[in-house]
Write a structure and sequence with these properties.
It comes from Calcidiscus leptoporus. Pfam families: BTB. InterPro entries: AtSIBP1-like (IPR044714), BTB/POZ_dom (IPR000210), SKP1/BTB/POZ_sf (IPR011333). The chain has 288 residues and is mainly alpha-helical. The protein has a domain at 6-89. It has 13 helices and five strands. It has helices at residues 31-50, 75-89, 107-117, 138-144, 146-152, 157-161, 171-182, 192-205, 211-220, 227-237, 240-252, 254-261, 267-272; strands at residues 6-12, 19-25, 125-129, 132-136, 163-166. The radius of gyration is 24 Å and the shape is elongated.
Amino acid sequence: GNHAEEKSYYFKGKKDCRSLRVYMPLKANSAVSSLVALRQNMLDVKKCCANDGDSSDSDWAADESLETSRNRDWGFEIGILDELLQVFSRAGPRGSFTQPEKMQLDARVVEMWAALMHDASSHDVTLITAGGPVRAHRAVLCISSSILKASLNSAMCEGQTQQVEVPDTSKEATLLLLELMYTGTSCDEIERGVLVPCFQLAHRWATSHVLPMLERMLASFLTDESFEEIAEIAVLQGSNELEQACIMFANSSKGVRRRLREGAGSMALRKLLGYDPHKLSGKKRKSF
């Protein structure tokens, strides 16, 4: 389906034998996001029919007039899509992430890298964080991040002083990122307040081997309360697998779906999840 620019689907309602054609863009869309878009189109059809055919706020396209489809009941078809999305949401803990190639490793090797990380006598780079300086090894930073490699090897301030300023990132988030760079593990109980800025810094530095770890951790933090923050970050950073995890979670959470119907979320997030991006929550603007 991803190779098609657009595909049309015909559905028949229980009360009307005539079919309705729904157009869906499939290019670069996953199966989950396509299902979400199709479900939203069906909901739009029901809404338009209930509003006496007023389709001014709908983006669905049909091959017949609403006048002939008012009696159509799409509840059955929407229910099928809901069940299918539930199946997708149960396929993994928070979506199906691409699993990296792994190997068994002696724990003493990890401990050696952890000891190196904390070996202050060999540190040669300073990261200036919001909570104070953090020391690290230039070689590890340069191997982990092409951004840091270019910065530390440049003739600019960072290259001259071997200092990198990250004033918008906490010391705890920076230390977590370093720990994952060095060992791919952590002994600490990680909090969302540390994980989110760590993920943002990892994206800024393009630490490709750390980002998948952070995406999986963020997906495990998805709850009704944390959904909007994590989903907005996934959209902002263009994290495809985390976006898919958010889509699956949203379609398995009644609370999230209710808030989205009420207009919660940014335009980009609402578009990702198949909701009207122009229906945003907030007070109505009055004209005078």
